[in-house]
Design brief:
five-stranded antiparallel beta sheet, single chain, three-stranded antiparallel beta sheet
Length: 133
């Protein structure tokens, strides 16, 4: 009974095999300050929290595909809004997709943030190697 399966595979009717996503240590985001109109591009290490305006961004994962496949870049992100008193409130938790930035966007009155790419390295030193003031 193996003959029909082999015949289907020979005619290209077998299911395609997809490669596993590639985990990257750095996520690149772009942020828009709607008041000034300034767009800032910045790199963030996975599990590092950075401040963009009043937003605290923490990427938990950043995946890309092998270069032989169509790129599907995605990142899991947590975003907190910091108040003037220093209290943080979670305003977004979820996946962002570089090819569909409006699909899961951070809903904020002053700031827009979207995923640009995932990278294996950056010029920004890792958090544990930075000097503290």
């Amino acid at each position: 009974m193996l003959v029909p399966f082999v015949a289907l595979a020979c005619f290209g009717l077998a299911a395609p095999v997809l490669a596993q996503p590639v985990a990257n240590p750095v996520a690149t985001f772009a942020g828009l300050d709607k008041i000034t109109g300034r767009i800032t591009r910045f790199d963030v290490y996975i599990d590092e929290t950075v401040l963009f305006g009043a937003l605290e961004l923490t990427p938990r994962a950043c995946y890309s595909r092998p270069s032989t496949e169509t790129q599907r870049i995605s990142a899991f992100l947590e975003v907190d809004q910091r108040s003037l008193t220093g209290v943080s409130r979670r305003i977004f938790t979820g996946w962002m997709f570089a090819d569909s930035p409006a699909l899961n966007a951070v809903d904020h009155a002053i700031y827009d943030v979207w995923l640009v790419e995932c990278k294996t390295s950056t010029d920004v030193p890792p958090p544990d190697e930075r000097e503290t003031p």
